[in-house]
Structures are given as structure tokens and as C-alpha cells.
Amino acid sequence: MKRIIQKITSLRILNKKAKKQDFELEGVGLAVCSVCGAVWSKKSWHHKEKYSEDELEQIKNKAIKKICPACIMEKENLCEGFVTLKNVPEDKKDELLNLIEHIGERAYKNDVLCRISKIEEERNKNIQICVTENQLAVSLGKQIKNAFNSSLDISWPEGDGPVRVVCEFKKE
Ligand SMILES: [Zn+2]
Asked: CA quadruple 97, 100, 104, 105: dihedral positive or negative?
């Protein structure tokens, strides 16, 4: 697992960059992300799996190459939401990580830009999750609370910063 190095200031800059890129794409009919292959069409990003091989061929001929906002965020170590899990009991960890993975996969299926970009266990044993959409952070927090009866604390930023979600497991 990689180390997470993020600062709110750089996050703000990146969010703006990602949004600006979307704005620039407003005038673009078709684009393909050169990292993940997502397709920009009708003013939003879509999974490439949505298209047949023939359609993808045609799209690639017409599209310009861009990097989608989620890949920019992953590349630059930035995110829209942090989830911190405290006091995770050793014997619940596998079950917990399976749930997180499952939630992440489902979110990604629904929205190609919605991703868990990093899961890291810190030296103090807290687990940190970084996600590319703030709603995914909130959803992770709520579902972890429901499944494990943890506490749930959600702090929305003032302005452009990331949402911070903390779930603390009860000591048994
Ligand atoms: Zn991408």
C-alpha cells in the first residue's frame, strides 16, 4: 500500500484543474482518456465497456486524447474525500476491506469517475481511504457504520476542500 501524501492546498488546485478541464471539454464532442480509456461524449465521461468494439473504433478515429479528472486525481495523489477508520479490530479487517472493495466496485460501475484511489494502513493502525468523489466517501462511511456499528462523523469543507469522514470502531 502506498503512502498518502496530500495537502488541502494542493487538493484545491487540483479540483479546480479537473473542473477547468471539464469546462474546456464542453466544446469537445468526443474524447478518450489516454490512461483508463473512458469516453467523453454528450458532456460526460462513460465507461468504454458501454460501447461495442466497432463503436470504439469509430470513437477513437474522431476523439481527441485527454486525461479524465479521476485519472488526473489518481496520478497527482489528490482526492475529493477521505475516510478514516479508527480502532479497527484485527479480526474484522478482512470483512471490512471486502465491504470497502465491494462498495468501490459498485460506485465505479455506476460512474467511471467515482473511484477508491487508495487504501492505506497508517503506522497508528488507522485505515485511510481516499476517493475521487465526495459522495463515495459519505456512502462508505454510512455503510461501514451500518455493517459494523461504528460511529460516523462527516465534516464537509468550506469551499473546495475534501470531505472528511471518520468511523470509529467500538472497543469490544
Ligand atoms: Zn481516465
From this structure: positive
